[in-house]
Amino acid sequence: MSSLEVLEPIFKVIPEVKSPVHREDFNEKLKWTALVLVLYFFLTQIPLYGLAPGAIDSFAQLRAVMAGSFGSILTLGIGPIVTASIVLQLLVGSNLLDLDLSSHKDKSHFQATQKVLSIVFTVFEASVLVLTGNLVPIDGSYTWLLILQLVLGALVIIYLDEVVSKWGFGSGIGLFIAAGVCQAIMVGTFSILPGTDGFLAGIIPKFIQQIMAGTPNLAILIPLIATIIVFLVVLYGEAMRVEIPISHGSVRGHGRIRGSVGKYPLKFVYSSNMPVILTSALLVNVTLFANVFQKIGVPILGHMQQGKPVDGIAWLLSTPSLQHFITEPIHVLIYAIFFIGCCMLFSYLWVEISGLNAKKISEQLYNSGIQIPGFRSSKRQLYKILKKYIPALTIISGIYVGLIAFLADLTGALGGGTGVLLTVGILHKLYEEMAEEQLMSANPVLRKVLGGD
User: Fold this and answer.
1) pTM as predicted
2) Distance between CA atoms of residues 85 and 278, nearest Å
3) What are the domain boundaries of the chain?
4) Tell me: the pLDDT tens digits for 16-46?
5) How confident is the model at residue 355 (pLDDT cuts 50, 70, 90)?
6) Transmembrane residues, as ranges (predicted)?
7) Which CATH superfamily is domain 5-15+23-449 in?
């Protein structure tokens, strides 16, 4: 019996997006993805009614990762979804929840529980932001109206994520992060709105203005250059593979393919960008709880001023800048160790929970009739070979994405260094998924071989 079966009565009353009865074609998936993206941008432009002017974004440095728009009904962004995912991954990883995620029923319970927890965290985070003074109403009578708007906005995000996951390309979480970061990069680079220093706000228009005025300042190009460097480094890492020689034996259900030899590629960034998303969400929650504890008069995580940590654990785990590398080296070092360490932990948990570990992959390959040349065809042998690579890649990829995200944030890259890292990975994965879907749409026989409907 699943540990979560006691929650089944709750699962039944929570609305869900139905999965398509038949496999959708490329154009249908593209339509749903584009529709959700347009709706997301529209919702980011709806301001919170009753919010006092001058509100300060406590999570500005991690705003791109949260995929929210501060001051709009989507202020919470994907925060509640990712927080729920963190809690469940830690519970399953520590065996406090006894679940077999290879079982369809247990996996279904896991996903339903994540949705329930997302709704719980939506109400909690909305209440915290308003009641601790991060979002101040123009009048006390607007307090609960603000909370209600935040909750409704986050609920829409939860269901839009589900729509994309079932009907579109990729996941809603990834799509919203990429959309927000791309928007920030475009605005930061090309905006022609007036800035606070008398020049235009966008880097390129500002630099052109400075050249025409005879006072060019090359330093303003640093964020743009940093963005390009981060983009290229991450793209290079995404393209790296560890290739294992394989041969095809008897492919169950599809006859025999003789003399077919190839390579099975394992991505260097094996756990993808999920460890960075989860770690960033964890840091957001540290700041969130620091506000809560200060509000109740027990600032055990540190003191807050205008929503920002000024000392304690919350300050040590706040995102540093390149300036802090010189003025506060201990702060930078502790943050780096914590950030990269959490990325390693979440990399391991993600691979185990998402079915990407050596055991699950060896079962999939064996059931497809694949074997390693020179070795006896057996599931155990495949597992032994994959175990030499996958655990190491899991840890190394966690360190890699954590280190790149940390260094990128120090540079002040447009859209946030972490945001650029995530966006490159998300868009690369989205491109691969779209290319695969287009190939299968053009080859019905290939779709049948790969298990499509």
Assistant:
1) 0.81
2) 8
3) 5-15+23-449
4) 888 888 878 888 899 999 999 999 999 999 9
5) confident
6) 32-52, 72-96, 116-136, 142-160, 172-193, 213-236, 276-294, 330-351, 389-407
7) SecY subunit domain (1.10.3370.10)
pLDDT greater at residue 12 or residue 81: 81
Q: What is the pLDDT of residue 444?
A: 59
The proportion of the chain whose per-residue pLDDT surpasses 70, expressed as a percent, equals 91
Nearest alpha-carbon partner for 65 in 214, 167, 184:
184
What percent of the chain lies above the pLDDT cut of 90?
22
pLDDT in tens, 139-157: 888 899 999 999 999 999 9
